[in-house]
């Protein structure tokens, strides 16, 4: 077989960080003798970038690995590799459990992929799950996979050291480390020069970003300001920040730069102090509400979204009611809502009791989802009659004559867009909505 120009198909599951990592993998492999393909049937290797955050994420990947066996029967030389958090969590054991997997690489091992693939070519199985204290892939210019040419992710830090009791991330992504701000600003500038109009700065906890620049510390508010100052036509978003260190400086940086989008994702996890303590979240409901008020005071139009977990160890009905209460108080625009899923080796697994029944978790989650549905609808209804600057991302799937884009608050707006195209900023007045989309028309 021709060993030059082998084709690699990358399939990504999980969070934005994983999608960003896949672009780094794509870049590393295409500077060696590999080509990235978006046609799975042409691939010599399929690399699956995986998530381990909840058990159902891992089950989904195991199901996908079984499905891929059919493809391997048709094309016996096809090799499968598993990357990312599930690879890191299960290590070599994954290749024993899943007999069609021949390569395993953790999130800090992507530079070794070319040599791991060589080992696989010579008929061996290959693994590298070493975590690093320094790796940031800082100077690597990611290839943009499945990109709309308008928005891109930029990874600014890796790892997490918060050790929330339920969370596997500190074990799968290792120590927290920040990337050199020069490489971040350069990457953003290059994207803007190529026509991109929006970048999202990514990290598990962006507010912990720190870089010692010849004796002075560059913090996240300074970094995001530098990126925003590349050009007012470049929108800047970020994800995720931990409530314990959402600083006034960051709120100020957002308020003073029109192109830093007015949307903050602030995972609360629970509305009960008893649960927040058990989760090791390091803040109280009172602290969290103080941060919400600080955001609202300075940026009344800022959208606020969250993550929440229903049925964590020891959660009582009263704790759950407090979560619903907090949701009503904050009035989230949107949230990601999960049932607690015990993860091996976490603090909660070792020391706490996963004692809320599955039925109870389901009921509590459904109540939160129902409430969020009402809150989202209220939030979207409040926008009817308002005007927003929309960055156009493409034509609507349902109706080719319509365009869609997002406002600064990250809400999707659909409108008749004749004569306009992707990448333009357009002022749109909202005339109607659902609980997930705004509908409007161009203001002439
Ligand atoms: N079970 C359920 N949800 C979890 N999350 C993290 N770990 C777990 C778990 N073990 C959720 C948190 C986090 C989001 C990314 O995933 O809400 O903010
Ligand atoms: Fe997990 Fe907590 Fe780190 Fe988020 S901040 S990745 S929930 S340990």
Explain how this protein is built.
The chain is α/β, with parallel strands linked by helices. The chain folds into 4 domains: 3-128, Rossmann fold (3-Layer(aba) Sandwich); 147-261, Transcription Regulator spoIIAA (2-Layer Sandwich); 297-382, Transcription Regulator spoIIAA (2-Layer Sandwich); 387-442, Nucleic acid-binding proteins (OB fold (Dihydrolipoamide Acetyltransferase, E2P)), CATH 2.40.50. The protein contains 14 helices and 21 strands. The strands form 6 sheets. Strands 2-1-3-4-5-6 form a 6-stranded parallel beta sheet, with helices on both faces. The chain has a 5-stranded mixed beta barrel with strand order 17-18-19-21-20. Strands 7-10-13 form a 3-stranded parallel beta sheet, sandwiched between helices. Helix 8 runs parallel beside helix 9. The longest helix has 25 residues, at 358-382. Bound molecules: 5'-deoxyadenosine and iron/sulfur cluster.
Q: Can you tag this structure with a few keywords?
A:
binds 5'-deoxyadenosine, Transcription Regulator spoIIAA, 444 residues, 35% helix, 4 domains, six-stranded parallel sheet, 24% strand, alpha/beta, Rossmann fold, binds iron/sulfur cluster, five-stranded mixed β-barrel
């Amino acid at each position: 077989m021709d060993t030059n120009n082998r084709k690699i198909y990358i399939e990504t599951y999980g969070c934005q960080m994983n999608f960003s990592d896949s672009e780094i993998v794509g870049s590393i492999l295409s500077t060696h003798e590999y080509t990235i393909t978006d046609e799975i049937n042409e691939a010599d290797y399929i690399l699956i970038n995986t998530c381990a955050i909840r058990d159902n994420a891992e089950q989904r990947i195991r199901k996908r690995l079984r499905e891929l066996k059919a493809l391997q029967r048709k094309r016996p030389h096809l090799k499968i590799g598993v990357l990312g958090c599930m690879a890191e969590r299960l290590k070599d054991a994954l290749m024993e459990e899943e007999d069609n997997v021949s390569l395993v690489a953790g999130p800090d091992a992507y530079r070794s992929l070319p040599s791991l693939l060589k080992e696989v070519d010579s008929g061996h199985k290959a693994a590298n799950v070493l975590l690093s204290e320094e790796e940031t892939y800082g100077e690597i210019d990611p290839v943009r996979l499945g990109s709309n040419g308008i928005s891109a992710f930029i990874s600014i830090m890796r790892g997490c050291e918060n050790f929330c009791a339920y969370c596997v991330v500190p074990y799968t992504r290792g120590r927290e480390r920040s990337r050199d701000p020069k490489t971040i600003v350069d990457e953003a500038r290059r994207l803007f020069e190529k026509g991109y109009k929006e970048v999202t700065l990514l990290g598990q906890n962006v507010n912990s970003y720190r870089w010692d620049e010849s004796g002075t510390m560059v913090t996240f508010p300074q970094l995001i300001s530098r990126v925003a100052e590349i050009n007012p036509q470049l929108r800047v978003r970020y994800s995720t920040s931990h409530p314990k260190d959402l600083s006034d400086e960051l709120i100020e940086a957002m308020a003073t730069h029109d192109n830093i989008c007015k949307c903050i994702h602030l995972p609360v996890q629970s509305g009960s102090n008893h649960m927040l303590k058990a989760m090791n979240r390091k803040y109280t409901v009172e602290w969290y509400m103080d941060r919400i008020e600080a955001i609202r005071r300075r940026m009344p139009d800022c959208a606020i979204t969250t993550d929440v977990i229903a049925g964590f160890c020891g959660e009582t009905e009263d704790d759950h009611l407090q979560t619903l209460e907090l949701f009503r108080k904050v009035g989230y625009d949107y949230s990601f809502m999960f049932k607690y899923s015990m993860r091996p080796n976490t603090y909660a697994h070792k020391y706490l009791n996963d004692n809320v029944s599955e039925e109870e978790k389901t009921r509590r989650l459904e109540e939160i989802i129902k409430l969020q549905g009402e809150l989202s609808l209220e939030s979207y209804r409040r926008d009817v009659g308002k005007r927003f600057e929309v960055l156009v991302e493409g034509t609507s799937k349902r109706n080719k004559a319509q365009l869609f884009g997002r406002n600064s608050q990250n809400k999707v707006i659909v409108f008749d867009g004749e004569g306009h195209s992707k990448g333009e900023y357009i002022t749109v007045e909202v005339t109607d909505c659902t609980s997930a989309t705004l509908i409007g028309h161009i203001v002439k």
